[in-house]
Amino acid sequence: MNGLLPISAFSRASLISANTLRAYHESGLLEPASVDPRTGYRGYRAAQLADAAVIRQLRELDVPLARIREMLAARDPGVTRRVLAEHRERMLAEQARLDRILLATDDLLAEPAPVTPPPVTERTFPPVRVFSVTAAVREDQFAGFLDEAFAQLGRGASGEATGPPGALYPAEYHDEAVPVTAYLPAAGGDDELPGGRFAVAEFVGPYHDMSAGYRALGTWLAGSGLTIGGPVRENYLAGPGEVPEDRYRTEICWPVQLLED
User: Which positions are tagged coiled coil (predicted)?
Assistant: First the structure.
């Protein structure tokens, strides 16, 4: 083949399967030097083994194909360092996520019995004046946003707080960034939370387990003839810096209204 390696020999030399090489060709990551227009047979130059080795190594590190393609196209050490640094940050975030999963799994292994859901009560809240900060954030950014927002609100609020800090979230859950409002009740607040009828569950425990409180509210709501009537609230009665994580207290409040037929 004019000094070219057929795909079978190139596969053996590169330790990359022929099927994967075909996929790399179709994606533009590693194109053969020649493709026979009659048979479709692919031929590769021996020099392409170096690129194949780089691709194989980076795929073992779970670097996405698009990022590998970017590095090979640039062939610039600066680009390579940037792409690998970004990949490292993604892997650290994934490691943190897996650590949380393992910790929760260990907790369930130690005590597999179902956790008693928190009781739900129906209450009427009056309007309340608050200082507030709103931003569009994803779920994995909630904690960082709230920490910064509450620090800002604490510095800027005039007068003493009249209640615990809290946050408003959309009535419907979304994977993408959503508007979240952090608030601090205070007599001189420049915003007002509306009053009304609420279903309330007080959850005790770490924030990453708070879905149990939401499940309790959902169970209560089913068959009640009511539906969520607006943004839901979380009032942080006791949190970081006040009590240990397993004693955090969060009041989850769903505004409710009659379900329309």
Answer: none
Identity of the residue numbered 248: Y
Q: Is the pLDDT of residue 126 over 70?
A: yes
pLDDT digits (tens, 9 = 90+) for 221-256: 998 889 999 999 999 999 988 999 888 999 999 999
Please give the residue range of the domain that contains residue 158. Answer: 120-258
The answer to whether residue 104 is domain-embedded is no
Buried b (16+ CB within 10 A) or exposed e, 29-51: bbebbeeeeeeeebbbeeebeeb
DSSP of 53-109, one letter per residue? Answer: HHHHHHHHTT--HHHHHHHHHH--HHHHHHHHHHHHHHHHHHHHHHHHHHHHHHHHH
On whether both 76 and 129 belong to a single domain, the answer is no
Token pair of 49 as six digits: 């083994």
pTM exceeding 0.70: no
Q: Are 232 and 168 in contact (CB under 8 A)?
A: yes
The pLDDT > 90 percentage for the chain reads 76
Report the CATH number at residue 31: 1.10.1660.10
